[in-house]
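A.,

Following up on our hallway conversation. Structure tokens first:
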């Protein structure tokens, strides 16, 4: 099979909304980019064209200095029901190995700005993995999480065995992944995977509110905080603490640190500039 190539059809449906073919991108609040998976007929099943568009949108938000945080969501029925089984079903080992099938699947983890996944409905397989790549996961009360790959003769391939086990522990991750059973929004919250649960109709607004709050802070400090947490989760405690302390020290070289502390002392709101 030929490697996939795509020409993005960005149609400007309004001054603030760029329309791709399989995602919607908008600016719902100051400093916030909202990316909505939009493949309703397939419950937002993730296939190559959609993943390429998603990566394009995330990377352009990451390099846009007016954006401080990103919200990633789907529809009320489905965040994403997994990788597109119909796209995958006839692939051979040679196909997926040689062309590194869905090589860029995990590009969301390369984004420096915080990503909040706002999950309503199904987040299964690659959809659950995509949600777990985000920095904060908010769930709608109707969310249905799961890694059902075992039922298809495969295993999770985009971090499911690793991130789910780190988030909820070995026992529950084994139970979920080896049986393919689903779990609810409240289970995700009680197990530490979701940071909060909201009524489905409030979910995206709540995620945007949180994103706007993050975007109001100094972007260098926000980036450093995200990096410190993610780095610390991959190394031992001593190494993580040293890394945190070095990042903390380095923030005293920023104008935002001077501004943040001066504003506190002068009892006024800070004006962070990302410098
Ligand atoms: N792929 C393709 N189409 C899908 C789909 C999927 N994952 N999920 C749903 N659809 C399509 C259905 O085929 C149906 O299309 P039509 O028949 O109308 O054309 C439409 O969406 C509506 O779905 P249903 O009619 O099935 O709706 P229901 O409400 O009855 O059921 C459901 C909803 C979510 C329970 C059901 O659709 C379902 O079980 N879907 C499959 C869920 C699943 O098994 N997901 C895991 C897929 S495997 C990789 C990394 C990761 C992955 C792969 C590679 N690399 C880094 C190499 C990930 C793998 C996976 O995610």
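Then the amino acids I'd put at each of the 275 positions:
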């Amino acid at each position: 099979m030929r490697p996939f190539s795509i020409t993005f059809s960005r149609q400007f449906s309004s001054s603030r909304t760029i329309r791709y073919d399989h995602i919607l991108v908008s600016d719902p609040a100051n400093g916030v980019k909202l990316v909505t998976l939009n493949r309703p007929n397939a419950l937002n099943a993730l296939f190559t064209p959609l993943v390429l568009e998603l990566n394009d949108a995330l990377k352009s938000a990451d390099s846009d200095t007016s954006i401080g945080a990103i919200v990633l969501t789907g529809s009320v029925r489905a965040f994403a029901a997994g990788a597109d089984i119909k796209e995958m079903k006839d692939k051979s080992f040679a196909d997926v190995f040689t062309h590194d099938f869905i090589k860029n699947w995990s590009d969301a983890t390369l984004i420096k700005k915080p990503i909040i996944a706002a999950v309503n409905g199904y987040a299964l397989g690659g959809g659950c993995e995509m949600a777990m790549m985000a920095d904060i996961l908010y769930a709608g009360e109707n969310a249905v999480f799961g890694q059902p790959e075992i039922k298809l003769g495969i295993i999770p391939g985009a971090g499911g065995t690793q991130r789910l086990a780190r988030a909820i522990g070995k026992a529950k991750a084994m139970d979920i992944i080896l049986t393919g059973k689903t779990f609810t929004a409240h289970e995700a919250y009680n197990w530490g995977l979701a940071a909060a649960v909201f009524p489905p109709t409030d979910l995206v607004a709540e995620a945007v509110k949180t994103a706007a709050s993050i975007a109001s802070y100094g972007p260098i400090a926000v980036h450093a905080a995200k990096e410190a947490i993610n780095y610390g989760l991959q190394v031992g405690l001593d190494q993580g603490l040293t890394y945190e302390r070095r990042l903390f020290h380095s923030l005293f070289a920023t104008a935002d640190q001077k501004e943040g502390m001066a504003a506190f002392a002068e009892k006024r709101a800070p004006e962070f500039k990302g410098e």
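The longest strand covers residues 23-29. Curious whether your intuition agrees with the design.

B.
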